[in-house]
TrEMBL record:
Belongs to the MetA family. Its EC number is 2.3.1.31. One of its GO terms (cellular component) is cytoplasm. It catalyses: L-homoserine + acetyl-CoA = O-acetyl-L-homoserine + CoA. Its main location: cytoplasm. This is Homoserine O-acetyltransferase. Transfers an acetyl group from acetyl-CoA to L-homoserine, forming acetyl-L-homoserine. The record marks 192 as: Important for substrate specificity. The record marks 111 as: Important for acyl-CoA specificity. It is an enzyme of class 2 (transferase).
Length: 306
């Protein structure tokens, strides 16, 4: 089934080349069903790339989904045109009276800053608080996950000695959780970050549970036991070349980055990276949509306030 997006969103062309069924508003208006309402708070600098990555994964279910995008009004975006933002994105004040089945909060390359020093932290706190009454289930990604844990549970992040970047083995610790239905015991996932959260802090919060962990990369997935909040520390949505592009970007900045681990065959940048995580990515997002959102969200979303 399709995802429904604005008619002229640039991501549509990429997704259609990949044979992904995308429905524009005109066609969707003719269908007599209630689609899921999903909001994406896109904090990544290259917003168009992130749109493609997330829409690709949201398309892999039999559910029809209305997707809207949100950006921070208190932050000036330098890598995405203002025309694109005006055309395809909302500001919080415009949607704060609405209700959504699901919310995705992306990562952002700012994890080395204390949360309070992020220029849009005050606005983001309002969105976090709003989500508890206006969103049924929220999926937080990387920095978005760390920020969510800090706001909702006062769990802080810790600076790593060096950037964690690469593809790592992960162990499924709690396979009975619906978001992990169909997962193998071990799967691969990308990480790209300078900070981490620690198990001892998570274990102090009774409503949280560590679901997936890596011996090398640490915690990957945390779930709230009410199924209404998930915190993913890695980037399953990444494309094959994303870590390579980040590595080359850091080289150009003179940061002398280390080679992403387990990424380039033979650790040689002349070889094309292998794609080993999209099966897990598709399953995680499909499970979240199906089990955590669709099967539990009220038909009348205003009942979230009850």
């Amino acid at each position: 089934m399709p995802i429904r997006v604005p008619k002229e969103l640039p991501a549509i062309k990429v997704l259609e080349r990949e044979k992904i069924f995308v429905m524009d508003e005109d066609r969707a208006m003719q269908q007599d069903i209630r689609p899921l309402e999903i909001l994406i708070l896109n904090l990544m600098p290259k917003k168009v790339e992130t749109e493609v990555q997330l829409l690709r994964l949201l398309s892999n279910t039999p559910l029809q989904i209305n997707v809207e995008f949100l950006h921070m009004s208190s932050h000036e975006t330098k890598n995405t045109s203002s025309e694109h933002l005006k055309r395809f994105y909302h500001q919080f004040d415009k949607i704060k009276e609405k209700f959504y089945d699901g919310l995705i909060i992306t990562g952002a390359p700012i994890e080395q800053f204390p949360f309070e020093q992020v220029d849009y932290w005050e606005e983001l706190q309002k969105i976090f608080q709003w989500s508890t009454t206006h969103v049924f289930s929220t999926l937080h990604i990387c920095w978005g996950a760390q920020a969510g844990l800090y706001f909702h549970h006062n769990i802080d992040k810790y600076l790593l000695e060096e950037k964690l970047t690469g593809i790592y083995h992960h162990d499924v610790l709690e396979p009975t959780w619906s978001i992990l239905k169909g997962f193998d015991d071990i799967f691969f996932a990308p990480h790209s970050r300078y900070t981490e959260v620690r198990r001892r802090d998570i274990d102090k919060i009774s409503e949280l549970e560590v679901l997936v962990e890596s011996k090398e990369a640490g915690i990957f997935l945390i779930g709230n036991k009410n199924n209404r909040a998930f915190y993913a520390m890695g980037h399953l949505e990444y494309d094959r070349e994303t870590l390579q592009q980040e590595f080359e970007r850091d080289q150009l900045k003179g940061l002398h980055p280390k080679l992403p681990e387990n990424y380039f065959p033979k650790n040689n940048t002349d070889y094309f990276p292998q794609l080993r995580w999209h099966m897990a990515a598709s399953l995680l997002f499909s499970n979240w949509l199906n089990y955590s959102v669709y099967q539990n969200t009220p038909y009348d979303l205003t009942n979230l306030l009850v």
